[in-house]
């Protein structure tokens, strides 16, 4: 099975959000799409990484840009705070100015701070919904408004999670992301755009403790942790011509951990 674009690849541009760290899913997705023939615009937001326990990964954007250009594709990086509504249109402006119209929108960004029903603050709840739900809607809307229907090729893919207990604002806002993204499968159908959501399950991107890694490995039927390339492989397929019949789906790609 081939997962290349199967079109005139030089005419296709992918916009990948949430590419802040080398061991993150967005980094793997952006590289894979470049190998598939896409020019790639990608977004990151350093202050978010600074708030997290793992901290910033200095030089990520420059390294990814270098890797993509070495593959023979064009790249542009844009730092943007997706909590700000106007950032979505300016992000598209930056990518389109350098690379051309976006053909595939892959949403890997998130706000994720653990808290439960009793200890979630209003500020944190609102920020999660602004980044995970509202920005998802605004980015998909911007994609639809700018889409060049003559190409009859378009992809929207968003990453979700079903983790809610002890992670309430993250899980609840991801639930909203699911509905927003899947609505595009119907509302954008006349444009030739497919829209799908991927739930990758627990993925080793640097946030797991050694104890948690052991527990998740033991609970996963395939006996290993999910890695960013697992997500990138599925995104690649969905963005290919071979994946064009898959539409309006929430796809579990988690090694079977969610099947028990």
Structure description:
The protein is an alpha/beta fold and 260 residues long. The protein has helices spanning 25-35, 46-51, 60-71, 87-99, 122-146, 168-187, 210-219, 228-239, and strands at residues 13-17, 39-44, 75-79, 104-107, 154-159, 193-199, 250-252. It has a single domain, classed as 3-Layer(aba) Sandwich (Rossmann fold). The chain is 42% helix and 14% strand. It is globular, with a radius of gyration of 17 Å. The two termini are 29 Å apart. 44% of the residues are buried. Mean pLDDT is 92; it is low at 1-9.
Features:
260 residues; alpha/beta; Rossmann fold; seven-stranded parallel sheet
Q: What spatial form do the alpha-carbon principal axes imply?
A: globular
- Please name the fourth-level CATH homologous superfamily: NAD(P)-binding Rossmann-like Domain
What is the structural class?
alpha/beta
Low-confidence stretches: 1-9
The N- and C-terminal alpha carbons lie at a distance of 29 Å
């Amino acid at each position: 099975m081939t997962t290349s674009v199967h079109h005139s690849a030089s005419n296709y541009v992918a916009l990948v959000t949430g590419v802040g760290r080398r061991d993150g899913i967005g980094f793997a997705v952006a590289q894979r799409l470049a190998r598939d023939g896409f020019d790639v615009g990608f977004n990151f937001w350093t202050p978010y990484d600074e708030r997290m326990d793992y901290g910033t990964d200095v030089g990520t954007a420059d390294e990814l840009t270098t890797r993509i250009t070495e593959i023979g594709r064009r790249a542009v990086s844009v730092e943007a705070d997706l909590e700000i509504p106007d950032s979505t249109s300016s992000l598209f402006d930056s990518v389109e100015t350098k690379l051309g119209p976006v053909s595939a929108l892959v949403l890997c960004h998130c706000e994720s701070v653990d808290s439960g029903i009793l200890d979630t603050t209003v500020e944190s709840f609102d920020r999660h919904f602004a980044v995970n739900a509202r920005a998802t809607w605004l980015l998909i809307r911007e994609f639809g408004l700018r889409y060049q229907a003559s190409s009859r090729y378009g992809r929207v893919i968003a990453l979700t999670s079903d983790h809610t207990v002890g992670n309430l604002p993250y899980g609840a806002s991801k639930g909203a992301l699911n509905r927003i993204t899947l609505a595009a499968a119907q509302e954008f159908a006349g444009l030739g755009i497919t829209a799908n959501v991927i739930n990758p399950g627990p993925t080793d991107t640097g946030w797991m403790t050694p104890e948690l890694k052991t527990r998740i490995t033991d609970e996963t039927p395939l006996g290993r942790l999910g890695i960013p390339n697992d997500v990138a492989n599925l995104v690649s397929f969905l963005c290919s011509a071979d994946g064009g019949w898959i539409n309006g789906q929430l796809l579990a790609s988690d090694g079977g951990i969610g099947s028990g």
